[in-house]
Design brief:
The longest helix is centred in the last third of the chain and has 11 residues, at 149-159. It is built from five helices and eight strands; from the N terminus they run E-H-H-E-H-E-E-E-E-E-H-E-H. Helices cover 22% and strands 27% of the residues. It has one domain (10-158): ph1033 like domains (ph1033 like fold). The two termini are 30 Å apart. It has a six-stranded mixed beta sheet. Strands 5-6 form a two-stranded antiparallel sheet. It is an alpha+beta fold and 166 residues long. The structure holds a DNA duplex (12 and 12 nucleotides).
DNA sequence: GCCAACGTTGGC
DNA sequence: GCCAACGTTGGC
């Protein structure tokens, strides 16, 4: 039996630009980095179980002035164990994790396009069509979350990109 | 299994 | 710096 083509999937990831900005990703080797350090089970499940190579990623700057979407990226690898969980010197070392049964996973993400217009949180909130977007719901703190295909299209358009730019 | 205390996130 | 919201921890 053959599987039918997958529907396109989209995600949003958060990063504090003081820590790792979209420009940092853009200038990284192959414009790619391992998205390590995620230590939330719901976010872990998205990384480990749902993300696929080629999925679209909105790169969101949190803790920034202003916060908002800075660029788009793509999932560039299958998920694999986050090596920092095993490193006692790493900030996100997790002594509960075992190499034979890792707790935490990551994917590689690769920058695709910088948004011609940075899309501030304020602007996102003002867009009625995005009212249900997950990142805009009060109290949500996930650093990795799904984005609806329609929302992806609206965000790209607001940011000055077209669908074919991805 | 409950729930209070605590730590973290992240906008403002 | 403040604080609301949330996840985790640990006593019971």
């Amino acid at each position: 039996m053959r599987s039918s083509p997958r529907k396109a999937q989209y995600w949003l990831v958060k990063s504090e630009p003081d820590c790792f900005s979209f420009d940092d990703l853009w200038t990284a080797p192959r414009r790619t980095t391992g998205w390590d350090g995620v230590r939330n089970y719901q976010a872990r499940n998205f990384l480990r179980d749902a993300m696929r190579v080629g999925d679209g990623v909105l790169y969101y700057h949190s803790g920034a002035e202003p916060p908002g979407v800075a660029g788009i990226a793509r999932v560039a690898s299958a998920s694999y164990p986050d090596p920092t969980q095993f490193d006692p010197a790493a900030e996100h070392f997790d002594p509960k994790s075992r190499r034979e049964m890792p707790l935490w996973f990551q994917v590689d993400i690769q920058a695709v396009r910088k948004l011609p217009r940075f899309l501030s949180l304020r602007t996102l909130k003002s867009e009625k069509a995005l009212a249900r977007m997950r990142v805009l719901q009060r109290g949500q703190r996930l650093s990795v979350m799904p984005v609806e295909p329609a929302e992806w299209g609206i965000v790209l358009a607001l940011g000055g990109l077209e669908a074919r730019d991805f």
